Every structure is written in C-alpha cells, then in structure tokens.
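pasting input
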Amino acid sequence: MSSADTHLDPAVHAHGETQGHGSKRSYLVGFGLSAVLTAIPFWLVMADPLGNAGLTAAAVIVIAVLQILVHTFCFLHLNTQAEGGWTMIAYIFTGVILLLTIGGSLWIMYHLNSNMMPGMMTGQTSYAP
Amino acid sequence: MAQLEQAQAAVDPTFHLVEADDHDHETGGATLLGFWIYLMSDALIFAALFATFGVLSTSYAGGPSPREIFELPLVALNTAILLVSSITYGFAMLAMERGAVRTTQAWLAVTGLLGASFVGIELFEFGALIAEGATPQRSGFLSGFFTLVGTHGLHVTVGIIWIVVMLVQIGQRGLIPANKRRLLCLSMFWHFLDVVWIGVFSFVYLLGMLR
C-alpha cells in the first residue's frame, strides 16, 4: 500500500507532501466509512426506527459532520504537514466562518421571526420576555 | 575575458538551479495551496447559500412542503452515484501516480459519466418539481432550495467539463507534471463537491423530510 507513496513524481512533489492524493487504503477506508455514514441517516429518516423527529434530526446532523471529516481526511488528505500547515489553518478558519454564518443567520432570523410576527407591526411594541 | 567566462561559469549553473527549484515550487506547492484557498472561499459561498436556505426553509407561502415534493429514493441514488464517483476519481489518482496513462483516462471517464448521471437525475428531479408547480418563484423555501442545489449542480457540471478537458490534455501530452498538477486540483475540486453534497442531502433533504 505504501509503495504508491514512494513513486511520487519529484516535479510535483518537490517540496514534500501535497494534498489531493493518497494511498489505495485511505480511499477504500474512506469509501467504506462514507457508505455506512450515508446509509445510516437515510435509514433513520426513511424507516424512522427512533420514532422521534428531534432525535433523528440530531443524529442526522452528527453523522453529517462525521462524514464531512471522513471525506476531508480520507479523500482530500488534509493533514498538518502539507504546505507547512497552511491548508489545515485555512480549513479550520473556514469552518469557524461557516459555523458563524450559518449558525448566526439561523439564530438571528429565528428570533426576528418569532418577535416580528404579522400583526405586531400595527402600533403596539412587542416585548420579548 | 577569461575572468568573465569563469565568473559566468561560476554563476550560471547556480542561477539555473535556483530558478528551476523555484519553478517546481510554483507549479507544485503554491498552485495546490492556492487552489485549496479557492475551495475554502467556495465553501463560504455555499455557507451563505445554506444559511439562506436555512432561514427560508419553512417559508412555504402556502406552497408545497419538503415532505410533499422530495423523493428520498432518488436522492439516495444520487448520493450513491456521487460517492462512487469520488472513489473512482481516487483510483484515477492512484493510476496517475503509477504513471498508467490509459488506466488514468479510463477512471476519469468513469468519474465523468457518473457525474453526468448525477446531473441528469438532478435535472430530472428539477423538471418533475417544476411540472408539479413547485417552481423557484413559488415560495421562499423553493427559491432557497433551487439556488443551493442548483449551484452545487452547476459546480458538478463544471467539474465534468474539466474532466473532459483533462482527458483531451492527457491524450495529447500524457502525464506531464503540468497535467498531474491539474489532476491534483481537479481531485480536490471533485472531492470538495462531494463534501458539499453531504451537507445538501443531510440538511436540505433529510432534515426537510422531518419537518
């Protein structure tokens, strides 16, 4: 398996590890894990074995995050060594911005929606408890 | 004169070596890092689209809800196709590292065909939705849905075009370092699209069916 890593082209790999390729093992492990992590949420929603929408939603979200990490490390081959660690720093930074954008939007707009329902704009002020 | 030649002889080889080394760095590391930064900024575009969809996801305006219009078996099929295309691209990269030109081309072609069937099924789904009256204009939920899923589909379409271009490039020039670099970038692009699709099928389709 690791023999593939010893035949790297010196021109492309002149400065050590680059992301975007890996061993056959990492692809097969990533594929196996992804297949399982795809099948479970579809099964949870389609067969509804938990019988609780909130619990199922939480499981789907957790499994999605896990699968994104599997893809990042097994298919995109992100590691702390490549490019002196800059790919990893960019990835973490993007993750933080992503959470702020999505989480922040949902949080703010949810509260705006519940505090500014139609009918609340007719003169009286709404007081959130 | 002899002194000058001597000086040149002393300077020239060093100069070229340094330049060649720099050049390798430019084509290898810097391009891949730059492409990675592009992918991260692309992820932020999708973050904005996911946020928009999330905010609008219950704004049905009296129109259809996700449960009424989504076909999960179709989504599962599309998810499987994209996942398999990820590993076939992985096999293309492994063949590229071995220097096997024909095998690389074959796996690339398989990946492109899988990508094309993904886009085909997605267009079929969009067509069925629009025929039912679930058009992007119908509600905020559907506007967000079509924008998010359509942007992902557009990325996959561009990826397919890129695969076709690479098949021609490899056919003409073989697995030269420049082509290997391009294939590495395309590899990151393709796997990145699969990562975005995880978000789409989980947060749009599966969570939509639970609402």
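fyi The domain at 14-210 of chain B is CATH 1.20.120.80 (Four Helix Bundle (Hemerythrin (Met), subunit A)).
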